[in-house]
Amino acid sequence: MIRGGGxxxxxxxxxxxxxxxxxxxxxxxxxxxxxxGIVVKHTSRLRNPDDGSELLFQGEVGWDLEGCEIRxxxxxxxxxxxxxxxxxxxxxxxxxxxxxxxxxxxxxLLEAFGDMTRLIYVxxxxxxxxxxxxxxxxxxxxDYVSSRVEFYWEPFSLYLQNIHAFDHVFIFAGDLxxxxxxxxxxxxxxxxxxxxxxxxxxxxxxxxxxxxxxxxSETGKIALVQEDTGAWSLPKGHVKTLAGEDSVAxxxxxxxxELGLAVGSPTVCLGDYARPSDERKGEMKHITIYLFPxxxxxxxxxxxxxxxxxxxxxxxxxxxxxSYREDRAFLAxxxxxxxxxxxxxxxxx
Length: 349
What we know:
The chain is α/β, with parallel strands linked by helices. It has 2 domains: about 10-205, Rossmann fold (3-Layer(aba) Sandwich), CATH 3.40.50.300; about 205-345, Alpha-Beta Complex (Nucleoside Triphosphate Pyrophosphohydrolase), CATH 3.90.79. Helix content is about 35%, strand content about 25%. The protein contains 10 helices and 16 strands. The strands form 4 sheets. Strands 2-7-1-8-9 form a 5-stranded parallel β-sheet, sandwiched between helices. The protein has a 4-stranded mixed β-sheet with strand order 4-3-6-5. The chain is elongated.
């Protein structure tokens, strides 16, 4: 099965309890191992009673999270994917299925496997309350359930912002026979070669909405954060749109997490721009930046382990210190307005 057009990497995304795991089990039951397989992910989290062989846990034979070429954090746990292992199976003509609902990990897979990648979103008719009620009957740990409830809508937000990138959508309303029928039709379509390539995967860029702040002290310095990759940037992060968060609230939250500062309302929106996410060419960030003047020059105490360092930097030197070209260009354009705001604040003292 799945011979049409050669082997593919099917990336399956969806909210917690949406039917992703059921889809994987259906694929395993319907497809001979010689034709398709399930990508094994390495993870730092603890095993649940119903976890299958598609996950490897610390201490188990073959577990090597550090050796995974693609690593990402989801629901406060780390996961890893071995790109070389996927390539090995694809070269043998075996399509591969993997569950991933993290935008950066999906972007990395798109970059690594290009036209061979197909994105599937599994849409559920349930919400976080129904998921929590169900999960509490499954013997899952309390922290496991609460983390998934907290970020429940993130995969759906990823899908809404990137509908153009997804090839197929399945609907799961608790009917396993219905889901199996959808999966069977998909597999047969690829078996018969009825899904020709309609675009180059290199043209697909996933988009995420981010917001942050130019946090400026009374002395005219601006706060910069250093990511765990070593890159310097303004404090910012993803907007939790489906949780009811707007860009201002997201900027305030990210400043609290990355600088350890509680800021009030911004004085002005400095503008927005887009840039690739870190070094991942497959994801684009649309970033909105607000101006947050603060009193004095308070101590910076980052709370986010992925952005462990923060400093006050002279505005005249900050542009050169930023690591990303797009960040530098945006801040350089904003320097006159930021300087005027600082001078105005000083004149009122």
